[in-house]
Each structure stands twice: as C-alpha cells, then as structure tokens.
Amino acid sequence: MSARASGFRDVTLQDPLWTFEDLVRAAGGRSEHATGAPVTGLSIDTRTLAAGDLFVALKDQRDGHDFVTAAFEAGASAALVSEAYAAKPGDGPLVRVPDVQAALESIGRAARARLSADARVIAVTGSAGKTGTKDMLRAALSRIGPAHGADKSFNNHWGVPLTLVRMPAATRFGVFEIGMNHAGEIGPLSRMVRPHVAIVTTVDAVHLAQFPNVEAIADAKAEIFEGLEADGTAILNRDNVHFETLRRRAEEAGARIVSFGQDGRADVRPKVLEIAADGTTMDIAVGGREVHCRVGVPGIHIAMNALAVAAAVEAAGADVAAALAALATVPPPPGRGVRTELPLRGGHVLLIDESYNANPASMRAAFAVLGTVPRAAYKRRIAVLGDMLELGDQEKSHHLALKEAVDAAGTDLVFATGPNMAHLFRALPPERQGAWALRSEEIEDALAARLEPGDVVMVKGSNGSRMGPLAEALRKRLAAG
User: Is residue 411 over pLDDT 60?
Assistant: First the structure.
C-alpha cells in the first residue's frame, strides 16, 4: 500500500521475526503453500518494503491488495490477504484470512503473549507529547536491555497492532504510543497491548469537535487503564487540572499511582531545574533518591515528559540513572522541534520545525521554546502559524487565546494561514503582522521576502493546515540560495 510508510524495523535483535508456520497460526489463517520463508519484518508500503518482509494488504486510503504482486517483486516473503483476493502470476506464499485488519490484531496479540514473564510493556497516551515521550522511553530503556517501539506515530487501530507484530520475542521493554480521535478508541488498543505501565502525559483541548468538553477527553484518555496488567502502574501529570479524574479512573482499574510534575506533591519532580535554549538540566526526585538528568531537546514541556520517563523506568524495575543518560542525545521527532540552520545572504536563519501537528497545549509549548532563543544569537523571533483543527465551536476563542503566548515569547513577527488563524492575526498590532493567506502554500513568497539573516522562524499548525510542506519548501528554498 503506497499511502503509508512502513516505519520501524527493529534490527537490534536477531531475525527471523516469525517462522512462516507460527505467523499463519497467529493470524488464524490458511496458506496455499506447505511452508514459506521466515518473516524478518512487516510492511504495509511497497515503496519501503525490505526483502523478507510480510506484506500486509490493509485497506486504508488505498486497498493494499492492489499492491500484492508489487510486494513480491520487491522481495516480500509472503502476503497477508483476504480470502477474496485473486492470486496473480508472480505472487508468492499467501496467508489468507477473512479480515486482514482482524488478522493483524490477532498476530499482535500473539506477539504480546510470547514475551517472557520478566518483560515490561509501557503504553503512552495524552493530548500532547506522546511521540516524544515514547521516543525518550525507548532510547532510555535501550541502555538497559533490548527495547522495541515504533519510529513513527503508529498509535491508531492499525499502527498499534503493526508495532506489536514487529516486536521480537526477545524484547525486554516494549514501548507503545496510543492515540485517539473519538471516545472508545484507546480501550481496545490498551487491552491489546496489555501494559504494565500506562502514562498520560497531559489532557488538554484536543479533538473538541468530537467531544462535548475537555472533561470528556480526560475520560477517553483514561481508557488506557483498561488494559493494565494486574498490579500495574499509572503515571499521571500532577500539574494537570484533570489529575484527580485520571487518578480516580486508574484506582478503579487497580493501578498503583505515581505522579510527576513541578507540583510539590508529585512523586517524581525536579529538585533543581535549569532551562536553556539547548535543553534542560535537572536533578530529579524519583524512587526515594535524586538522579541527575540532562535533556537535549529544549522546552519545559519536554522536561516534564522526561519526568514521566523517569517514573516509567523506575516502575519497570530498571536502573533510572543509567537509562536517563540517553536523554542528552535523543533528537526531537520529525516536525516536533527539529532545528536547522539555513544560509541567507551571508548569514543564517534558524528554522524550528514544529509542523507535525498542533493543539492549544502544544502551541503554547512551542511558543515557550521560541521565547528561550537568545537575542544575542538571533535578532528576530518569527512565528508561522497554521490553523489548529478539530476544536469545534471553540475554535475562534482558542486561536485568539494564543495572543498571550505570542506576547510572552517576545514574538516580533507573525505569519498566519487559514480561516481560524485569521482571528489571531487580526488581533495583533500592525507592526507584528507579517502576512496572512488562506492556504499555507500562498504565504511562502511573502515569508521568504521578509526574512533577514539572524531570524529564528518557528513553523507550527495542525496536519490538515499543511505547515509541513511549507517548512520543507522554506528549507529547500534557503538551502538552494
């Protein structure tokens, strides 16, 4: 299927990932071949498929069955297809099942079940910070033993089982990101993952078009506790206003509660906190002792998520100090704060790419990071903003409320795209209005024309506002001179 990237492929543990026979059995399917080659990975995208992968013919934006033959041409060891698929000349071993999605989930449950008794599984959800927290956790736990997790935000109904299926049997630490757009989506995924530790990074105004209020979002995030193993641990943000709701739901699930944050009542909190433009240094109170930690990605929100990582590592029974040493070198995920120095007329422009997605919480966090960029190194702070989507009838108020963050960051110039960001743009004084356009591609020329050497440019918006392509276009334009 060409609509999705295949993503993470764990190369730290020995192949094969599955024998052909075990895979057929786990899928609850049948094969038209007596046997097949071992499966060394899984793919849902023929463009990135590696030799030895099982090709999974999911139906998403396109029907994966249209790409089965191409998958075998690329070296697939087998293909997971529906019973109705008509085999073509050149096809290899087929694993036929009544429903490909259901079979993928079945294999995922089998992958979870074959882990050793001392393996530990951690699941992460929240309104913001899921992917960064998952990446920090995987890097930290990799210092202790074989760890597995997805490179990308594989957090939905196909991404979670896909990440499970790719998990080698010898994994000691499995880290899973679980997301949602509607109520009732997290619970089934949590029951599939069966975590020993569940983290809720934060709860904020996200997907309000599908929820009556933020309290309902908190209830939906609390579904992650439905899959917790017996005597599991819930790690909750003590600074978040929905902490008590989440704690009650976690206790109802029988979880041990560990809180994190700057609140003095938090179980895991910073005793010393030094925030800088290039990262954060902390001495963390965790598990009855203090651990020194350097987080290489800037932002107080990243530092707070690192506290959740510390709590999870401790709950998983691993060496916290040894694990947290990895956080000094963990890079930000693509589109979540990646920094690039770009040439401009004998000087440089710093691009901060925050374009992956946006909601009120992550927007405020991005502006807080922008505000830490030193004036001595960069003359002007410029924000390029796209609409925050799925906010329902509160979209205007949430966009207008960003003016406080714009001001607090000392933002010199704002470029905006989309009908919702027009509300914020019009509320700014003229000297801070760069330009506004309905679509992101329409603002590139105006932005490029106003840039000067010594500018720092932060680009952020919801995926649907297409700020990612704008950031990439700006990157290529400046790199080309």
Answer: yes
Q: What is the DSSP letter of 145?
A: S
Rounded Cα–Cα distance for residues 344 and 250 (Å): 52
375 to each of 113, 134, 274, 345, how far by Cα in Å? Answer: 54, 32, 18, 20
Q: pLDDT for 294-317, tens place per residue?
A: 999 999 999 999 999 999 999 999
**DSSP, res 52:** T
- The predicted-structure confidence for 351-388, as pLDDT tens digits, reads as follows 999 998 899 989 999 999 999 999 988 999 999 999 99
For 175, the token pair is 């880290």
Question: Under a CB-based contact definition with an 8 Å cutoff, are residues 75 and 49 in contact?
Answer: yes
CB neighbour list of residue 328: distance below 8 Å, 6 or more residues apart: 279, 294, 295, 296
150 within 8 A of 167, measured Cβ to Cβ: no
Cα(191)–Cα(460) distance, integer angstroms: 33
pLDDT in tens, 242-257: 999 999 999 999 999 9
What does the angle CA 322 – CA 325 – CA 331 come to, to the nearest 5 degrees? 140
Contact 55, 77 (CB under 8 A): no
* 8 Å CB contact between 462 and 441: no
Smallest CA-to-CA distance from 356 within 320, 388, 393 is with 388
Give the helix/strand (H/E) hosting 460: strand 455-460
Closest C-alpha to 143, from 327, 270, 281: 327
For every residue of 158-208, DSSP letters joined together read: THHHHHHHT--TT-SEEEEE---SSTTSHHHHHHHH--SEEEE----S-SG
Phi/psi region, residue 327 (left: phi>0; alpha: psi -120 to 50; beta: rest), is alpha
pLDDT in the model for residue 386:
97
Structure token pair of residue 203: 């709860």
The pLDDT of residue 4: 33
Q: Which of 101, 94, 62 has the alpha carbon at shortest distance from 76? A: 94
CB of 256 closer than 8 Å to CB of 233: yes
In percent, the amount of the chain with pLDDT more than 90 equals 85
Instruction: Look up residue 40 and give its amino acid.
Output: T
Q: Lowest mean pLDDT: which of 145-159, 180-194, 309-323, 449-463?
A: 145-159
